[in-house]
Every structure is written in C-alpha cells, then in structure tokens.
Design goal:
With about 220 residues, the chain is an alpha/beta fold. The protein has a single domain, classed as Vaccinia Virus protein VP39 (Rossmann fold), CATH 3.40.50.150. The protein has 7 helices and 10 strands. An 8-stranded mixed β-sheet has the order 1-10-9-2-3-7-4-8. Strands 5-6 form a two-stranded antiparallel ribbon. Strand 5 and strand 6 (about 120) form a beta hairpin. The protein is globular, with a radius of gyration of 16 Å. The model has no long low-confidence stretch (mean pLDDT about 90).
C-alpha cells in the first residue's frame, strides 16, 4: 500500500511530459477522484497560426486511453470529457465499451463565433460520465454554462479556467486528485489548485508541456 501511494504521489501536483498511454499505466487502480479532460477531437485541427494537435488525425488511442482512465478512476466517481460534435458516435461508443455511463451533457455558450461554415459555431460541449453509481452532488452545475474566451495563446484549443472550475467544484471534494491526461495548456490543473484540489497532468507535446509547466509554477504554493 505504501509503495502504491508513493508511486501516485510522484505525479501529484505536477505536469509530466510523455504519452498518456504509457504514463497512465504507472498509476494504481482506483487512485484518482475525478477526470476532466479535453482529448484530441479526431478532426485534424489546424488553427490560423498552423498549430496542430498530436494524435488528432487518428483514433487508435481512444479506446486504450479511456480504458486506462476507467481503471484508474475510483468507483462511483465522475469524468468530464470534451469532444467534437461530429465525432460523438466514436467517443460515445468507446466510453460505453470501457464501462463509462453518460449521465449528462454540458453546453458552453460563447459570445462569439469561433468558426463560420453552414452555421456560426458559438458553443463547446462535453459529456458527464460516471464509473458506477456516484452520489448526486449537493450543488450540481447548470448544463448550460458561460464561456470566456481564453485567447488560445498557449494552445489552439485552450480551455478557460472559468469553464472548468464549476465542474471540478461540483464533482470532487477538497484535496481530491483531478486527472487530465491531455493537459494542453494546463487549465485543469489551475482550476484544481484554485479550489483546493490536487492534480495530475500529462502532456505529450513539448511546446504545450513547457507552456503549461511555466503557467502552473505561478500558481503552485512555494515550499
């Protein structure tokens, strides 16, 4: 037991550079309290500056990654995952195959159009998933929430901390461990820290890892 928690502790309140498929295998079964993540959307995303996202061009990683997330999440706990609306069928089938149960859905409303095609795209979306049968939160969030533009200065799909905070607040307790294996700019870690949670972050891309590491260093308490 002591060795198990020592292994877990080596990842807590830090971002680790590397492939989450390898890093997740280092975490013990049933060891984290909440998953909040924004995985690649499988849409070959490329922003105006030419930034790309690793593994956004294939779906080979989706099942093994979420199978590991299901393993490391404690029973009767929650996971929140963003996704692309046009790949919802793929994500939903994998989540269910891994054992997750979709129990609700979030829409984050933007005051601007992030893309214009057949429609003006003015929202982001995420699913609320469960492992087992968790207790309903005392103060559950609305399923329609505001979205404050992050500027995408550190990552092409940088999530605003203000959008993640109510999710972390509702589905975890003080000092819980919040896991994000696709950490990007580190917004999940910042949200966790600001409301008294711990975090574990993984990021494969060196550029985003370094940006998140610097950002988190400003919020971590000095020892």
């Amino acid at each position: 037991m002591h060795q198990t928690y020592s292994m877990l502790d080596s990842f807590v309140n830090r971002i680790t550079e590397g492939d989450c498929l390898s890093l997740l295998r280092c975490l013990p079964d049933n060891s984290v309290d909440l998953v909040v993540t924004d995985p690649p959307y499988l849409i070959r995303h490329k922003d105006r500056e030419g930034w790309k996202i690793v593994n956004d061009d294939n779906s080979r990683w989706v099942y093994p990654a979420f199978a590991e997330l299901y393993r490391v999440l404690k029973p009767d706990r929650f996971a929140v995952s963003f996704y692309a609306w046009n790949r919802a069928d793929r994500f939903l089938s994998v989540w269910r195959e891994c054992g997750f149960i979709p129990v609700s859905h979030f829409v984050f409303v933007k005051a601007y159009a992030s893309y214009v095609n057949f429609v003006r795209m003015r929202h982001e979306q995420a699913y609320l998933l469960v492992k087992g049968y968790p207790v309903r939160p005392e103060n559950p969030p609305d399923d329609v929430l505001p979205w404050q533009y992050s500027g995408n200065k550190l990552h092409p799909t940088q999530k605003p901390v203000s959008a993640l905070t109510p999710l972390v607040q509702a589905y975890s307790e003080k000092n819980d461990i919040v896991l994000d294996p696709f950490a990007g700019s580190g917004s999940t870690g910042i949200a966790a820290l600001q409301i008294g949670r711990r975090f574990i972050l993984f990021e494969k891309d060196r550029q985003y890892f370094e940006s998140a590491q610097k950002r988190l260093a400003q919020d971590l308490p000095q020892t």
